[in-house]
Amino acid sequence: MDPRKHRLLELLLTDAFVYREDPPFVLSSGATSPYYVDCKKVVLSAEGQTLVGALGYQVARELGVCAVGGLTLGADPIACAIAHHSFGRSTRLQAFVVRKEAKGHGTGKWLEGTVAPGSLVAVVDDVLTTGRSTLLAVKRAREAGLIVTAAIALIDREEGGSEALAAAGVTVHAVVTRTELMALRASAQRHRSEAAVA
Q1: Tens digits of per-residue pLDDT, 61-103?
Q2: Rounded distance, CA 75 to CA 185, Å?
Q3: Quick one: CA dihedral 121, 122, 125, 130, positive or negative?
Q4: Which of 49, 65, 83, 130 could form a disulfide with 122 if both were Cys (CB 3.0 to 4.6 A apart)?
Q5: Pairing relationship of beta strands 171-177 and 147-156 according to DSSP bridges
Q6: 94-98 vs 67-71, strand pairing mode
Q7: One-letter-per-residue 3-state SS of 106-117
Q8: For the range 47-50, what are the long-range contacts, defined as Cβ-Cβ under 8 Å and sequence gap of 24 or more?
Q9: How is the chain split into domains, by residue range?
């Protein structure tokens, strides 16, 4: 595993992961879960920005897109980290923001950024669960004339979001998955148990 990815998993587990069975967390989809990953605690940190920018750029470059962006607020620091990382590299990427509501004055647009219609872009999101917010960002981006065939999720909770996006013609590329995060959590718990016995 890329050491940067392993470090990102460590940060997500120590700084963003919370487990609570009673009461469970209510997710943005309305579903409940015993765990919640507050990615903003990681992606708004200096180290998190550096790691997400590097790993996200690697995915975006392989996709051949010219810009990344998504629904505010979850996507904003990820898209900006990727764009920032791209500066001075072979492939420069732009960031864009999809508003939750159309701008109430001036042009009344849904998207902010300098991405031209007809551009191939990837929609990004922090946590992919059902895919609802990512699909909304895809819809708005397509209405603005952008070509969207891929999405980059910082974490894929593996709860149907990838399938929902695939049905809309969008392939999901996860930086990390729930399976990987839970495997690291189980390993950390095992090490703590062994240390306690010793």
Answers
A1: 999 999 999 999 999 999 999 999 999 999 999 999 999 887 6
A2: 25
A3: positive
A4: 65
A5: parallel
A6: parallel
A7: CCCCCEECCCCC
A8: 47/7, 47/11, 48/8, 48/11, 49/77, 49/81, 49/84, 50/81, 50/85
A9: 3-197
Helix 46-63 vs helix 76-86: crossing angle, to nearest 10: 70
Strand blocks (E) in 32-74: 32-33, 35-37, 67-71
Structure tokens that stand for 153 in this block: 């999720």
Q: Which CATH class is domain 3-197?
A: alpha beta
- Cis bond leading into 73, ω under 30°? yes
Dump pLDDT digits (tens) for 108-152: 688 999 999 999 999 999 999 999 999 999 999 999 999 999 999
Query: Is residue 47 a contact partner of residue 11, using CB atoms and an 8 Å limit?
Result: yes
For the entire predicted model, the pTM comes to 0.92
Select from 127, 132, 192 the least CA-distant residue to 168: 132
Contact 152, 59 (CB under 8 A): yes
Length of the chain: 198
DSSP, res 75? S
Who contacts 17 (Cβ-Cβ below 8 Å, separation ≥6)? 35, 36, 37, 181, 185
Instruction: Count the Cβ atoms, other than its own, within 10 Å of residue 20.
Output: 11
End-to-end CA distance of the chain: give it in Å, rounded.
Answer: 29
How buried is 112 (Cβ within 10 angstroms: 0-12 exposed, 13-18 middle, 19+ buried)? middle
